[in-house]
Amino acid sequence: MVAPEPLPEKSAPAVIEESGGALADRVPPAPAVAAGATAEAGAAATPQPSARTLFNQLLNGLYDAAVITDLKGHVVNANGRLTSALGFESDAIWDWHISRLIPGISNTLLIQINEGLDDERYVLLEARCMREDETSFPAEIAISHVAITADNNLLFCIRNIERRHAIIKELRAASRLLNYLPGAALSCDQAGKVVVANRAMARMLGIEEAALLSGQSFTDIWREAQAPDVIKRALMGETVKQPATVVNTRGKRLQIIISVAPDIDQHKRVAGLLVSFTPAAVVSLGATAK
Prior knowledge:
Blueprint: E1 15-19, E2 22-26, H1 35-45, H2 51-60, E3 65-70, E4 75-78, H3 81-86, H4 107-115, E5 123-130, E6 136-146, E7 153-160, H5 162-180, E8 184-189, E9 194-197, H6 199-205, H7 218-221, H8 227-235, E10 240-247, E11 253-264, E12 270-279, H9 280-289
Antiparallel strand pairs: 1-2, 3-4, 3-7, 5-6, 6-7, 8-9, 8-12, 10-11, 11-12
């Protein structure tokens, strides 16, 4: 005779009791959970930042001063960078028309901008921006659509380009000075490629425009065997001056004195080469006059 199997034990029933006027379930203790699983569950329960919080973090993390307006150009938000760039606190410009910050933007232009922002495109323009102290500066402004409200919004990212304009001005002045010099001259990068040459250099070589020399190797202009060694010495910081022969596009051999010096940048590093060419006859006459 087979003994009957013992019946499974009944789990303890949940007991409902009053606690401070509220009902609470008293249930048996839950089984032990591994420490790693507990940590994962805790991490999953960590509240995530809202979309608005993430948006504000992104807005304030931008390098540019950023201003958000409605489609008619009235300011509804701005980032902290605006204060350092223009001097205004973001709260102070609430509901201002964007033209108070960027005078060149009219209502007519806003209509054209909105029409040009379809298909997630953006508009890039240059304009002057007004600071709180009523001074102005040149700026590069990127304008795009952002969906902050149901009616959509405009995002203006404003970047000060005063330094860029100053550098361009210096470069143009340097270019004019280079072309004013009667002697042939050029500059090269560290790889020995021509960056810029003056008109006298183009005339010496029989080339129509100096710009055609840009990107050419210096050793294609000065093809003598000692050229690579002179370039190497100049890139190490030495100024070298010596007689040389250059052949122009008409096949004429030109006897010159070539001077190759290091081009030192603002960090005191050699950025390339500065090269000038003087006809050997001119140097000889100068030496005879002495």
